[in-house]
Amino acid sequence: xxxxxxxxxxxxxxxxxxxxxxxxxxxxxxxxxxxxxxxxxxxxxxxxxxxxxxxxxxxxxxxxxxxxxxxxxxxxxxxxxxxxxxxxxxxxxxxxxxxxxxxxxxxxxxxxxxxx
Amino acid sequence: xxxxxxxxxxxxxxxxxxxxxxxxxxxxxxxxxxxxxxxxxxxxxxxxxxxxxxxxxxxxxxxxxxxxxxxxxxxxxxxxxxxxxxxxxxxxxxxxxxxxxxxxxxxxxxxxxxxx
Amino acid sequence: xxxxxxxxxxxxxxxxxxxxxxxxxxxxxxxxxxxxxxxxxxxxxxxxxxxxxxxxxxxxxxxxxxxxxxxxxxxxxxxxxxxxxxxxxxxxxxxxxxxxxxxxxxxxxxxxxxxx
Amino acid sequence: xxxxxxxxxxxxxxxxxxxxxxxxxxxxxxxxxxxxxxxxxxxxxxxxxxxxxxxxxxxxxxxxxxxxxxxxxxxxxxxxxxxxxxxxxxxxxxxxxxxxxxxxxxxxxxxxxxxx
Lengths: 116, 116, 116, 116
Hints:
Structural class of chain A: mainly alpha
Order of helices and strands of chain A: HHHHHHH
Oligomer: homotetramer
Helix content of chain A: over 70%
Shape of chain A: globular
Radius of gyration of chain A: 18 Å
């Protein structure tokens, strides 16, 4: 994991330790909290059109950024709890996706998006 | 943002550009995809006890890590689309949380977890 | 609760009893399963425009209806587990909403949708 | 659909019509709102143990019932928008599940819950 992400992950661990909150941080609970935060993020967009979602006003943009931070913080706590290297896992996934959606097939037909 | 995260974010942008997928990647749609991936992560835990979630077998651990990667990848694509510095936003949030839950009050009574 | 909903709820209880699944059906777990099903429903719409979501083809329509059924079934199982009368709770909520969004104020300005 | 559910669905349609809110109620948006409400429901349980989730105090029980009502109301609005008979869809799903998890196989080994 990168230095800044590792630093954040360590700060989160210390934060929870100081408050004796590790007892609540079973992976199952962190996965619940992650979904809850992701849904709070989605709440900002639910009645907007796609175009409106591309041009948020400044107050909404800040609120959305704060929700994105919450998602990242729970994801890092989960990576702590399960000892997962997030960046390595993401790199692996990117390689899988490159094989799954080769440019010459994916370009223009967007099968991924039509055939769920 | 850290170098490795920025590198991942750039790879994702190139990946979508090559496939002409930016048209689908309105922030609203990326927020939907983020929740969907977070829920796929939760699906692994839904029938487990908290203790079971702390000791996943190797196959489940790998599957969970792959779902966590998906969450990170959509979060990075959203940060691209909205021009949000994720690590900076997370640092800001950590400072807010430290003020909101001071150690001497939060320790032992876990108010955060009882009073939602 | 209405007769048909009550009948469904009773069938679900019997279904779980016969399989000795009540042990898994803590309200917390059912709430997890409900979110997971709701996200599977959302997955069908995540890359569609709003207009496309209004005119699903027949195969997609059937798949969406099946996901909606899953959401209802977990909601009913949760109402069993917590002894909640869903229809009564919904009627109460409707009255609250009518007070919260009076027609003469809500009509045309859609405050609910702009100020989340 | 049962009479009480149909009555609720009709009330919701009238409620939205009076406020000119149908323009916001594309199925995609309703599916977003449904996930958001389901996550608000889950939020009540995220830090509870399964046992705690089985014995909510009265205030929490009422709050949970109100969130369950919100989930039902959006599910009904989606059934309006897509012309889906929810009870019929649920009955179909129950029959599918009975074939998928026969009692003599499902009882005691809970395969459904181990093999996601």
